[in-house]
Design a protein that fits this description.
about 130 residues, alpha+beta, 2,3-Dihydroxybiphenyl 1,2-Dioxygenase, domain 1
């Protein structure tokens, strides 16, 4: 851990979508972003090839637009367990703990907006 100090940062904005191919083309063209890895099963992380902007992730879903949950932040942390506890202490609520095979915890802010804390233990602060 860098300086033994837990750190947290915005790593990716996630957009749920129904038409994955159309959204992939739109956001790639709109932002001039490229896939970080090849798209798989309705999921892709788009990155700024210049390395300046945050990632935009597309997640295909059949839920359709939800009135209270269509876009959420992924906050990366090199100490996710501590950060989840710190955020809960600030007023967030855990809405979905991580499953054994997952690297994220879903929380809600005091107003009920959902976001994820992603384990980024192998990354330095600011890396995506």
């Amino acid at each position: 851990m860098e300086g033994d100090k837990p750190r947290i940062w915005v790593g990716s904005l996630v957009i749920d979508c129904a038409d994955f191919a159309a959204m992939l083309k739109f956001w790639s063209d709109a932002l001039h972003y490229v896939p970080k890895h090849p798209p798989t099963k309705g999921w892709v992380i788009l990155k700024d090839p210049e390395g300046f902007g945050p990632n935009i992730s597309l997640n295909q879903t059949t839920e359709g637009p939800l009135s209270d949950y269509r876009l959420h932040l992924d906050l990366y942390s090199n100490d996710p367990d501590s950060e989840v506890q710190r955020l809960v202490g600030l007023g967030a609520k855990v809405t979905r703990p991580p499953k054994a095979e997952e690297d994220f915890t879903t929380l809600a802010d005091p107003d009920g907006n959902l976001f994820d804390v992603i384990s980024a233990k192998r990354l330095k602060f600011g890396e995506r």
